[in-house]
Amino acid sequence: MSADRTSVRAVARLLATADSLLTAGLGGPLTPAGRDRGAAYALRIALEAAVDAFLTAEEAGLRKVTMRAKLLCLRHYAAPDLALRVSALWSALCTGCKYHHDEIGPSHAQVRAWQTSVETLVTELAARAT
After folding, report:
1. What string of DSSP letters covers 92-129?
2. Strand runs (DSSP E) across 39-102, as ranges?
3. What number is the average pLDDT over the span 16-24?
4. CA–CA distance, 116 with 89 (Å, rounded to integer)
5. What is the pLDDT of residues 48-92, one digit of tens each?
6. The whole model's pTM is what?
7. Is the distance from CB of 70 to CB of 112 less than 8 angstroms?
């Protein structure tokens, strides 16, 4: 199995995980806020995996750099507006994933909006990689 197919499947599984966490009636020990934050984590990792797959297709040496550096490199390899949208969404997801006692986590509606954005950006990155 090629690395491209592996990364596509990993991203698809992460998106499915986020969707299942956001689906009501799951039950179990997770609170709604815990499910929303968990979905945000899955969405962030899916976006990171899509960026990794895109950049690896362009330049293999970018595997070992930080995500912030990869996002800067994305401006060179992808359209600047796409890179800006990916960077802004990644930043928002990072903020949503952090837990602080004095802050409210992301709302369910916010995570659903992020889910739609991640799915769109993953599709755009995959289309540009081919």
Report:
1. HHHHHH---TTS----HHHHHHHHHHHHHHHHHHHHHH
2. none
3. 89
4. 11
5. 999 999 998 777 777 788 999 999 999 999 999 999 999 999 999
6. 0.90
7. no
Instruction: Return the number of other C-beta atoms located less than 10 Å from residue 67's C-beta.
Output: 15
Domain ranges of the chain: 3-129
* Token code pair at residue 100: 């602080």
Hey, what amino acid is at 117? S
Q: How distant, in Å, are the alpha carbons of 27, 37, 70, 87 from that of 76?
A: 44, 31, 10, 13
Are the CB atoms for 32 and 104 separated by under 8 Å?
no
- Give backbone dihedrals phi and psi of 31, rounded to 5 degrees, phi first: -80, 165
Closest to 92 measured CA to CA, from 44, 129, 50: 44
Return the DSSP state at 51.
H
Q: In the CATH hierarchy, which top-level class contains the domain 3-129?
A: mainly alpha
